[in-house]
């Protein structure tokens, strides 16, 4: 926690801000990329959203109150940016978010950055059938192993609701995988 406070202080000090931000990038870039990628599916979209996320973090670091962990605050920004991106794309294409998700999954096999096998592709298809909140909760718990307490801060909801969403998501994924 002291390291985080020290980094925050340097991020908010004009003559150390640039170097501290480079450290922040190096600490969280990969984790945030994969979090975003699981939401938006496409590598190119994930890169765009990641860039927007870090721009927002850079511009708004002075607004961070410290009520949560820095990483939770950044995950919340990344999650919101990802959802905004999906909503804009769906609106632009004049399709629902669910149709956009299915379209993205069907293009996943052709994505040169997707290194998964058929089982991982099937899992992604199963996840895509879930409502957006269940997708977020499942991805954050299953892939990122984020604690419910931290997830509650990121998604601004109760731990109990998150546990219920996760268990429902797991059941739906199991059902999808056994019937497909």
Automatic annotation (TrEMBL):
Alphabetic keyword roster: Sigma factor, Transcription, Transcription regulation
Where the record annotates domain RNA polymerase sigma-70 region, the positions are: 26-90
InterPro entries under this entry?
RNA_pol_sigma-70-like (IPR039425), RNA_pol_sigma-70_dom (IPR014284), RNA_pol_sigma70_r2 (IPR007627), RNA_pol_sigma70_r4_t2 (IPR013249), RNA_pol_sigma_r2 (IPR013325), RNA_pol_sigma_r3/r4-like (IPR013324), WH-like_DNA-bd_sf (IPR036388)
Domain (RNA polymerase sigma factor 70 region 4 type) ranges: 121-173
Which Pfam family, just one, is annotated for this protein? Answer: Sigma70_r4_2
Q: Which family does it belong to?
A: Belongs to the sigma-70 factor family. ECF subfamily.
User: What is the protein named?
Assistant: RNA polymerase sigma-70 factor (ECF subfamily)
- Species this protein is from: Meridianimaribacter flavus
């Amino acid at each position: 926690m002291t390291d985080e406070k020290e980094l925050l202080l340097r991020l908010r000090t004009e003559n150390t801000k640039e170097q501290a931000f480079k450290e922040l990038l190096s600490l969280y870039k990969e984790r945030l990329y994969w979090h975003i990628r699981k939401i938006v599916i496409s590598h190119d979209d994930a890169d765009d959203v990641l860039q927007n996320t870090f721009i927002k973090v850079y511009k708004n670091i002075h607004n961070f109150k410290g009520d949560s962990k820095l990483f939770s605050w950044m995950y919340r920004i990344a999650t919101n940016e990802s959802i905004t991106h999906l909503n804009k794309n769906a609106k632009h294409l004049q399709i629902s978010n669910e149709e956009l998700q299915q379209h993205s999954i069907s293009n996943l096999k052709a994505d040169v950055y997707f290194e998964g096998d058929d089982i991982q592709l099937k899992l992604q298809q199963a996840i895509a059938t879930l409502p957006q909140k269940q997708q977020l909760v499942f991805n954050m718990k299953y892939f990122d192993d984020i604690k419910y307490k931290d997830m509650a801060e990121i998604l601004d909801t109760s731990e109990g609701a998150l546990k219920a969403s996760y268990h429902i998501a797991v059941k739906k994924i199991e059902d999808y995988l056994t019937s497909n």
